[in-house]
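Me: I'm a chemist; would you kindly supply a protein sequence with its structure tokens?

Assistant:
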Amino acid sequence: MGANRCRITLETDPLPIGAVPPLITTLMQLTGLSPAGMMIVVTAVFLAGLIRGFAGFGLSAVVMASAATILPPIELDTRINLPLFGIL
């Protein structure tokens, strides 16, 4: 009876070291950000999530203030929000 165990295997190969995952590549194409800019935005969103978890507010303020170092705020809203909601 012990031989009938369920075994899960991955059908895809892991990404080589230094390769950019397809989701990140798609987000970079939609937003027009460089890899370094995308990492800054991802880090800002992660840190803003931590702040939101501890304080209960402040996610949007931290994200917009951090991401505004890369893009002007008027471009930031259209480049990040519109593609994510499927408008563009």
The chain has four helices and no strands. The CA atoms of residues 27 and 33 lie 8 Å apart. The chain has one domain: 22-84. The chain has a mean pLDDT of 75.
